[in-house]
Amino acid sequence: MASSHTNDNQTEKTAKQAAVERAQWLRAAILGANDGLLSTTSLILGVSAAAEHDRRSIILSGLAGALAGAFSMAAGEFVSVSTQRDIEEKLFDLHEQPKLHHDEEYSRTSTPGRTPVMRVMVEDQQGLMKVLPSPHKAAAASGAAFLCGAVVPLAFSVLVVENIVRVGMLVVVATVVLAVFGGVGARLGGSPVKVSILRVVVGGWLAMAVTYGLLKPFDRDGHE
């Protein structure tokens, strides 16, 4: 009976760990796609403002931004997650002591600087290590997601010839996709959905408007 109860607890614990791990890399992927969409859209809008008749430069700048952003995102995610794992591993090495495995003994031997959070982390060392995402998986997910998000504005740059139509369609489509990303990200993070969507959309509008507005004065054709 005790063995069955232990197995059930272990199964539940494993399921929770798997769910947390999925949520972590899914959230990283959504953030990567959001960045890819917004940064590439803003870049294309900015170049469109400064060189609206140079469609080749618009497409090349968008492509360059997508590739550079994807590799930058992947490298940053790899470094960040690797550093996180190193910190956790050192924390385990410093605080993993048998006397911390029991609440009564912990209460008698606790010292300043050793918090209950550290004790929980030690007790659940194997589980916590499984929850931490793989640096390689996180980097691949972020880089690929960034490219997926960048595909949307790049496709419009290639398919839509008229500049004013392209700019308008980019803003509308980017707004819709940003709202979707904001909603999904809020669900995964446990945040209010409406507030998250509003925050993401308004932030996206500001990024696109500022980029377009700052580069518009460089439009030579518009001043001729």
Automatic annotation (TrEMBL):
Q: Name one GO molecular function term.
A: manganese ion transmembrane transporter activity
Which UniProt keywords are given for this protein, alphabetically ordered?
A: Ion transport, Iron, Iron transport, Membrane, Transmembrane, Transmembrane helix, Transport, Vacuole
- Similarity comment text for this entry: Belongs to the CCC1 family.
Q: Does the keyword Ribonucleoprotein apply?
A: no
Naming one, the record's GO cellular component terms include:
vacuolar membrane
Listed InterPro entries: Ccc1_fam
Q: What protein is this chain from? A: Vacuolar iron transporter
Question: What's this chain's function?
Answer: Vacuolar Fe(2+) uptake transporter.
Residue stretches spanning the membrane: 138-161, 167-185, 197-215
Q: How does it sit in the membrane?
A: Multi-pass membrane protein
Q: Does the keyword Iron apply?
A: yes
Which Pfam families does the protein's record reference? VIT1
Which species does this protein come from?
Ficus carica (Common fig)
**Reaction(s) this enzyme catalyzes, per UniProt:** Fe(2+)(in) = Fe(2+)(out)
Its BP terms in the Gene Ontology are: intracellular manganese ion homeostasis
Please state where this protein is localized. Answer: Vacuole membrane
